[in-house]
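ok so for the tutorial part 2 we go from a plain amino acid sequence to predicted structure tokens. step 1 is just haveing the sequence, like this:
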Amino acid sequence: MSRETFLARVRQAAEIGRQYRVHINPFPPETGYVGVKEDLCERLAAEITAVGGEATLVPSVAAAREFVAKLLMEAHARSALCWQHELLERLGLTELLQSRGIAQHTYRSLSAVAETERRPTQLACDVGITGVDLAIAETGSLALCSQPGHERTASLLPPFYIAVVERAQIVPDLLDAFAWLQKRGLENLPSNMALVTGPSKSGDIELTLTTGVHGPGRWCVVIIQS
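step 2 — the prediction. this is what the tokens look like for a chain of 226 residues:
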């Protein structure tokens, strides 16, 4: 079959396909919506625990800083792969890491490193620390939108992952997260949005559940209630 004949058949098939349309009766906007009746912070913490994560409720940014410091000490961290995020700035993360002699690697610092050294540097980090774009109380999920300074590698590569969330970032239902994306507009959609629910798990080998195979084995979320 010649190239011209093949393309003609493709065009013909596409034209036939365009003649058919799927007609779906509109659903009420509340269809599939679960929502959350209890306190959003408490429900998020409960769901995170249910999926194998570690959730800690703290009353303030200052308390969150103290708890992150405790987690870093437990991890014996020497280097951290971090987001450049407004909440982490308020937390004083850079100063916290410096005071403990922990090397901080961010989009800005890694941009100054030779390209051949960037990935090995990220892979060598002991801990990843990020904020979030949203947290979903219904499922205990974190929504992380990729962009410069908010790389998904921070939540994927290090064996120990810490996320810091504040109440204003928590939505009740997964459908609320999609509504949030819709409000941003198509032109502002991220190149990638990851929904992270619990530490990495795999049951590929003899159906035995193993944690930490394809990502962090320890997954801690610090939830600021104020």
